[in-house]
Amino acid sequence: MAIQRNESDWQLRAACRGPQSAMFFPPQSPERREDKRERESRAKAICGECRVRPDCLDFAVDIREQHGIWGGLSENERKILRVV
Ligand code: SF4
Fold first, then answer.
1. How confident is residue 50, by pLDDT bands cut at 50, 70 and 90?
2. Whose alpha carbon is nearest atom 8 of ligand 1?
3. In angstroms, what is the span from residue 71 Cα to ligand 1's centroid?
4. What are the tens digits of pLDDT across the range 53-73?
5. In sequence order, what are the residues at sequence separation of 6 or more whose Cβ sits closer than 8 angstroms to the Cβ of residue 24?
6. Is residue 14 lining ligand 1, measured as CB closer than 6 Å?
7. Among 24, 62, 81, which is best to mutate for testing ligand 1, by the most ligand atoms less than 8 A from CB?
8. Torsion of CA 64, 70, 58, 65, to 10 degrees
9. Could you tell me the pTM of the whole model?
10. Considering only CA atoms, which residue is closest to atom 3 of ligand 1?
């Protein structure tokens, strides 16, 4: 969790806490498509092992988080989820 808002209990148990949290968000400089795919794949692998994934995804969808990997889904994947 690189972005913290009133840190909840589930956020304290997030598998992405710590230095690896940077891979969940795009870098400041432009990112090549294949680099983005690899970064997101590594982030999603961490989400796949995370005990609070449902809480994280619900939170990101509820607040319409625009950036990063949350609950194992990218911003575009979460948008699709909201439409369905
Ligand atoms: S599901 Fe992924 S983004 Fe959400 S808390 Fe767990 S590791 Fe972090």
1. very high
2. 16
3. 5
4. 999 999 999 999 999 999 999
5. 2, 16, 43, 68, 69, 70
6. yes
7. 24
8. -10
9. 0.88
10. 70
